[in-house]
Amino acid sequence: MSPHTAQIEKRSTRDWQAADARHFLHPFTDYRQLAGRGARIIERADNIYLWDSEGHKILDAMSGLWCVNVGYGQQALIDAATRQLRELPFYNAFFQTSTPPAIELAETLAELAPEGFEHVFFTGSGSEGNDTIVRMVRRFWDLQGQPQRDIIIGRINGYHGSTMAGASLGGMAAMHAQGGLPIPGIAHIGQPHWFGSDRSLDREAFGEQAAAWLEAKILALGPDRVAAFIGEPVQGAGGVIVPPASYWPAIQRIADKYGILLVSDEVICGFGRTGQWFGCQTLGFRPDLITFAKGVSSGYIPLGGVLVGARVARALIDQGGEFEHGFTYSGHPTACAVALANLRLIRELDLVRKVREDIGPYLARGLAAIGAHPLVGEVQHCGMMAALQLVRDKHTLATFDPALAVGMVCRAHCFREGLIMRAVGDRMIVAPPLVMTREQVDEMLALVRRCLDLSWNELQERQLL
Ligand SMILES: *Cc1c(COP(=O)(O)O)cnc(C)c1O
């Protein structure tokens, strides 16, 4: 790169791939496999589309990584970053100092949050938000004179990030298998995944049963040992698992009964994804703490944090003394300025209501039609996130041998057809930008259908059906 220009000069795809393989250790990646194949180099984006280094246009049905809620290329966010970088790119919030963007964002979040949330702790990411949750929850119980209440219950196949605490709260077996996780004081219960159960109960009865696992775990551990329960309103990385409607209200009753704190990890569900500002409003529960990240800044710049409800905030503020926790980038002014512009844009475009009343239901209708496809055994959706469960037999709902990696077969077709749809096992998932038009939903679903057809043909040719 020339020292006189900030521009990154264009190289050939091969060149990028070779340098990538030589130096860049990607997250959640098999390095040898990637080096053999070469990374796909994404060069630019606009609205809901990406372009790779070969000039292919790709419809991004995953909003980057569940975060680009307002789509790419929004000038208001670009301008907010530019202005703030010029004015005050960075200052910390440690030593009794503050900055206007951080103050204004905290104020705005308190306004948008469910009732009872007046305080915000900023972090640089969702994982750091969940590390903050662990420290805050345990500090809360210390201050209540119950320091033995230190166990936080999460769920198998939940995702709460990749730091030591985030990965521990999450229930991903492959993550726990590396690095001695979970850390002490974390327990897990099963997920409210009806399709993955033995399906002997109807969905709502199953939802009650899955919630009852929480009570059983509390009783097994001892009610005086349990500090909190954490869950995503709708599990994202676990495969867009929408719980039965009975689940969260039953969880709420159990949390209330034992007085434990309820934590909603809204890193994906927050900021309109489910058709409300926060997923707990769609799913019907009242958390004490909310983790956020991703959609707060539409991913244009890293930002996360914790919304702190009155119960915990009062303890920290009135009795806590110094809270010995924080990050260099807690309240990063440029990140906060971009988030403010993002939230303003979501309001101006009325995106939350549109997801709830227009584009979400429109997506749901289109998906219902795709549900007739012979490969699809279950369709689940909530606002602008959805899952298609691939099955071997539509009538018995028999699934494929996991070793066949049928989800990856479908994903390979998506890759070639210019669609980013993710595979979680044999669940194909989408979480497109909230700004999608009806025409773009049609375009996306036509691609989805085509990729399902191509997968069907391939599986037939390989005699797997
Ligand atoms: C992505 C995600 C996280 C982790 O956020 P990072 O910014 O990647 O650290 C935590 N919780 C949920 C629900 C997520 O989807």
Short key terms for the protein model shown above:
single chain; alpha/beta; Aspartate Aminotransferase, domain 1; Aspartate Aminotransferase, domain 2; 2 domains; seven-stranded mixed sheet; 16 helices; globular
Question: Can you put this structure into words, describing what you see?
Answer:
With 465 residues, this protein is an alpha/beta fold. The protein has 16 helices and 15 strands. A 7-stranded mixed β-sheet has the order 4-10-9-8-7-5-6, sandwiched between helices. The N and C termini lie far apart (52 Å). The mean pLDDT is 97. The structure holds pyridoxal-5'-phosphate. Pyridoxal-5'-phosphate (PLP) binds next to α6.
C-alpha-based Rg, rounded: 22 Å
- Tell me the structural class: alpha/beta
Summarize the biggest pleated sheet.
Answer: 7 strands, mixed
Any ligands, ions or cofactors bound here, and which? pyridoxal-5'-phosphate
Average the pLDDT over all residues and give the rounded result: 97
The number of distinct β-strands equals 15
Spatial order of strands in the largest sheet = 4-10-9-8-7-5-6
Helix content: 40-55%
**Multimerization status:** single chain
* Strand percentage: 15-25%
Provide the CATH architecture of the largest domain. Answer: 3-Layer(aba) Sandwich
The CATH class of the largest domain is Alpha Beta
Low-confidence stretches: none
In CATH, the topology of the largest domain is named: Aspartate Aminotransferase, domain 2
**Alpha carbon gap, first and last residue:** 52 Å
